Amino acid sequence: MNAAENAFAAGGDEAEFVCSERIKFRKFRSQNIVHRLQNRALGLRSHSVREFYQNILPGTTVVNVEKPPCYLRKFSPDGRYLIAFSSDQASLEIYRYMGCSAAGDLFQDWGDSELVSNDGTGGKSYQIRSQIFEKLFKLKHVVNMDNNEKQLNRECSLFTNDCRFVIVGSALFIPEENRPH
Asked: CA-to-CA distance for 27 and 16, rounded, in angstroms?
C-alpha cells in the first residue's frame, strides 16, 4: 500500500495527497547551429524577419592588420561590442562592431586572392591592412582607472546577462613592508 491508500484506509481524505499543479518544463536553448546563428544575428528586432547573412564563412583573410596599441580581448555575448585593454592596462576601450559590409569598399578593386598579406609593395594591400580595423570597429567609450597605481586584469572580464555592463578585475601592487602577515 502506498501513502495515499494508507491515509484513505485510516479514514483520511485521498484528495490531500493528489497534486493538482502541473509540472513546468524548462525550455532549453536550441543546440542547432542554424537556430543559434539566427538568434545572435546583429541588428534584428523580435518582430522583424530573420534572414541569414551572406558571409558566414570568410572568403578573404587579412593578416598583419594595423590596430590601435591595445590588447583586444573579446566580443560581448550579443556580438555588438569588442572590449580591449590599453597597452598600459590602465583603461578599458569599448569598440562597436560595424559589420562586414562596413569594410566592403576596401575590397572593391581586390582580385580573387583569398589572402591579403604584407607583400612589401604597399599599394592596395597596405591600404586594406591599415584601414580595415577602423572600418570594422568604431571606438565608443574609453573608461580610465581613477588610480594610476591600479592595473586592469585583461584575463578577468565578465559581461552581465543583458550585455549592458562588463565587470573587470584589477590589481594593485602592495609593497612588501605593507603586506599583512
From this structure: 30
pLDDT per residue rounded down to tens, the chain (181 residues): 555 555 555 555 555 666 667 777 777 767 777 777 776 665 555 555 555 554 456 677 888 889 999 999 999 888 889 999 999 888 999 999 998 888 888 888 777 666 667 766 667 788 888 889 999 999 999 988 877 778 888 888 888 888 888 899 888 877 777 767 6
Domain count across the chain: 1
Residue carrying C-alpha cell 590601435:
68
Q: Is 76 among the domain residues?
A: yes
Provide the domain limits for residue 121. 55-178
